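Archive record
______________

***
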Amino acid sequence: MKTVAVQWGEELFEGAGAASGAEFGQLAAPGRLIEISGVGASARYTTAVAQVRQAQLEGETTAWIQPAGGPLYPPDLADSGVDLDALITPVHLPRISVLAARYPSLRIVVDHGAKPDIAAGQLGDWAAGLARLAAAPQVYCKLSGLWNQAAPGADANALATCSLHLLACFGAGRVLWGSDWPHTEQKETAHAANWIDRLHEWLPGAALRQQVFVINPSALYSY
């Protein structure tokens, strides 16, 4: 791995992008660790986050590493309107719970219900961990992607236990629906119509469905 350290003063920073003709988010080449700082170690988290985001969009594995007293921390991101989408599995739930407790202003969206192991039926740790995480009021959860955690050929009924537990933990006010289409691996059985039909059973009433399908994602993602 190559390491590239970038340090600038105000004038140098402003001229760097103009001289290269590149967006700051494109300055980080794949496979390189980028260290960014400014005069007096001032926070340049907007540019740093842009570089991390660009690396993610290009399929690079990305990590944010900084000293304990570093200038960037989740409240900075929260104040800038940046939320955390957590693509996690059950083993990560305790760590996300700690993060949520430490930074109550950082909104967190758990993707795909934290991917419970529906196929193996090993749901105990997942159910307990998700309930603990849901106690943090700034945490939301996506009701999506569960078909990929079920056994091949499973129908929508196989998702009922996890879906109902997720809804019970977060309530309709902090759940977002997602079809996961066309990325589901269960193309033979994962029909969107079946998924919608089950959600009508699990979310009785037009107001609840409007909350999960429209109001919550619109509020979170500002569209």
